[in-house]
Amino acid sequence: MDINKSSGLIFHPTSLPSRYGIGDLGKESYEFVDLLSQSKTSIWQVLPLGITDDIEFSPYSSKSSILGNPYLVSLDNIKNKIFTSEELSEIAYPISNEVNFSVVYKNKNNIFKNISNRINTEDKEYKNYLNNEHIKKHLTFLTLSEINKGPWNNWNDRYQNYSEDLFDEVYNRYLDIFSKNLFLQFEFSKQWQKLKSYANNNNVSILGDIPIYVNHNSADVWLNQNLFDLDKNKNMGFVSGAVPDDFTLEGQVWNTALYEWDNHQKDDYKYWVDKLNYNLDNYDYLRIDHFVGFFQFWAIPFGKPALDGHWRKGPWETFFEKIAKYVNFDKLLAEDLGVELNDTTEILTKYTIPGMKVLQQRIPNKEDNDEIHPDLWDENVVAYTGTHDSPTIKQWFNESKEQVKYFNKYKTNLITEYDSNVWNFISMTWQSPCKLAVTTVQDLLDLGLEGRFNVPGTQKGNWKWRIEDLKNLITPLEKLKNLNVSCGRIST
Prior knowledge:
Helix content is 36%, strand content 11%. The protein has 18 helices and twelve strands. The strands form two sheets. It has an eight-stranded parallel beta sheet. A four-stranded antiparallel beta sheet has the order 5-4-7-8, with no helix packed on it.
């Protein structure tokens, strides 16, 4: 990564306060950038910003790898005031520390249905937006998925494959739904780019996140059926997941589509080149989730538990050499947690892509271990206290008694020590030589279990934490600013 020694915070936009029950790209997002800038924290890390389903609401399983979540569009920042003040008042929702996704999505859908009568899709700005073929095709799928029930492979035969004729049919026959989706995606793109520009002008860079896999019922699979591992009925015979380990003894079933890597290779991995570059246009840096999946991946028979899975070989021997010609690797970060492979280390070293070290996972729990003190971690690594999938630091201290003993030994090396062990944990991560050190907003607020964002392997109750008032961050961010200074993490 072409980044100076600096620091960052994980904070998904849904967790921002707003008057509609979910964080969005409105004024609070700009206020958060201001707080980051004032604290000399130069990286804002977000989770994937794509469309979620309406069951699990996971940002890691989307209908599209390039379209944005329409529920993040700031309704107050739409310039032409397409919604009336009465309509906006009707969907106002009391500010709380959780997102009630089902209610928020329903409320916003109630006014989104009015969009088609208030815009002209023939306007130049929309025509220019549709000149992007990827957007045009993904919007076609998004519209069809609202018209048809169930996954795309159960649709009418004439909807099974994209064509210009199909686009014309969708545009003319279902203009009300298409224009709604067009407007929301256009607004999302415009608002996100404006926010990103504001952040960059205030010395804050955006670290995005891209899942390695996509939902079977997505534009990606519909448009590229030969690139995915599908059976004769275009269903998934095998699905993605994680091998059982010390943290999840039963393993994890993600139920996203696996790739037919041989077909990707025949096309010089064009699908991945396009997807990575499209996302790099939206972020300053990009974290690739489950990076080890390019080397080997756990394939689970559809409908079976993760324990029934088996290893398959990934495309790494040709993949990175091919896409390196077209993708700027200086902007990438690899989530290389979990299974450790020599091949992964070889590629990360060759292309100077930083991997990750998570302090919660790197504190030993027994005398016989091969862990090294964070003071000895490599520079070309991003150091995390924890991630969106981890317990909060406070929760970790409550649940990790054996590791806490070794943490107490480790912290004797701290240059900046606090009365709070949560802050000592952050300080230890910041003190490492790693080029980037990252924690979460929940940890700055010293939250316990109530601040947990996601529990891997579970389907419900995740992603909903949010902050009720950004003023609560002023004091901890001032504290973080002092730590940024003492640890030399003021990026210039």
